[in-house]
Amino acid sequence: MATSEEKREELHELVNGLPPEKLEEAVAALREVLGPVLPRSLGMGHSGRSDLSERADDLLGEDGFGR
Q1: Tens-digit pLDDT profile for residues 22-44
Q2: Are 49 and 58 in contact (CB under 8 A)?
Q3: At the N or C end, where does the chain have fewer CB atoms within 10 A?
Q4: CA distance 62 to 1
Q5: CB atoms within 10 A of CB 36
């Protein structure tokens, strides 16, 4: 059985060998497998609090943000 690294290398070889006319189809198929790709910055800083936007000024201190 192939390791993850061997499978990744095979995938790279397959992608590198794609003819230009098949690129769009291959990208669409891979996107379907992966699902939506979100920016890495989304979800950073999980605080566990659900009231951050309502309490932003309180949480930032006496001066608040932009005051």
Answers
A1: 999 999 999 999 888 777 776 66
A2: no
A3: N
A4: 61
A5: 5
